[in-house]
C-alpha cells in the first residue's frame, strides 16, 4: 500500500535563491521532519536526526520486502527517476550489466540478517549512465524489536 506523506510547503526567502547551502539545509530539515513523522508512526527505535548527519545524496526508504516507500529529492537528482516512478519498485531496478553479482548477494545476506552495512555498487541512471554508489543501509525496528523498514543513505562516489 502506497503511503503519501504530507509535505509542508516552506516559502523560499531571497537568500535561499542565492545561497545553495541554505536551500540544502532546508531540504535536510524537511527530510528529517518527514522521516521523524514516519518513525513516530511506525515506532522505530532510532534517532533519525543523528542518522542523517552523514553525507548523502539520496535516501531510499523501503518496507521489509524492499519495496520503495519513499525517496527524497536527492534521489531524482542522482538517478534521474522521479519519486512516483520509484515508489513501489525494488531498488534493484537501478542495477545493470556491471552491477556486481557478489555485491548484490552480500546485500541480500545483510538484509536477511537485519544488519546495518555499507557497500559500493554500480547503479544506472534513467539515461542508462552508470555511476558508483556508496550505500549504507540501516534496518528500522519498532518497539517490539521487529524490523519493519530499511533506510538506505546513498551517495555517488
Characterization of the model:
With 157 residues, the chain is of the alpha+beta class. The protein has one domain: Beta-Lactamase (2-Layer Sandwich), CATH 3.30.450.20. 36% of the residues lie in helices and 25% in strands. The chain has a 5-stranded antiparallel beta sheet with strand order 2-1-5-4-3. The longest helix has 23 residues. It is globular, with a radius of gyration of 16 Å.
Brief summary of the model shown:
With 157 residues, the protein is an alpha+beta fold. Helices cover 36% and strands 25% of the residues. The chain has helices at 14-18, 20-42, 48-51, 73-79, 83-86, 101-113; strands at residues 58-63, 68-71, 117-124, 130-141, 147-156.
Distinctive features:
157 residues; Beta-Lactamase; five-stranded antiparallel beta sheet; disordered N terminus
Amino acid at each position: 500500500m502506497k503511503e503519501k506523506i504530507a509535505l509542508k510547503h516552506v516559502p523560499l526567502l531571497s537568500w535561499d535563491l542565492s545561497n545553495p547551502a541554505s536551500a540544502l539545509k532546508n531540504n535536510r530539515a524537511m527530510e528529517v521532519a518527514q522521516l521523524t513523522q514516519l518513525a513516530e508512526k511506525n515506532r522505530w527505535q532510532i534517532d533519525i536526526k543523528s542518522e542523517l548527519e552523514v553525507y548523502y545524496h539520496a535516501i531510499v526508504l523501503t518496507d521489509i520486502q524492499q519495496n520503495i516507500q519513499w525517496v527524497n529529492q536527492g534521489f531524482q537528482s542522482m538517478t534521474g527517476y522521479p519519486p512516483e516512478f520509484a515508489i513501489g519498485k525494488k531498488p534493484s531496478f537501478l542495477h545493470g550489466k556491471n552491477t556486481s553479482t557478489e555485491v548484490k548477494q552480500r546485500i541480500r545476506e545483510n538484509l536477511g540478517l537485519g544488519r546495518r552495512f555499507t557497500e559500493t555498487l554500480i547503479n544506472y541512471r534513467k539515461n542508462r549512465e552508470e555511476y558508483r554508489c556508496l550505500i549504507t543501509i540501516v534496518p528500522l525496528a519498532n518497539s517490539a524489536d521487529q524490523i519493519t523498514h530499511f533506510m538506505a543513505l546513498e551517495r555517488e562516489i
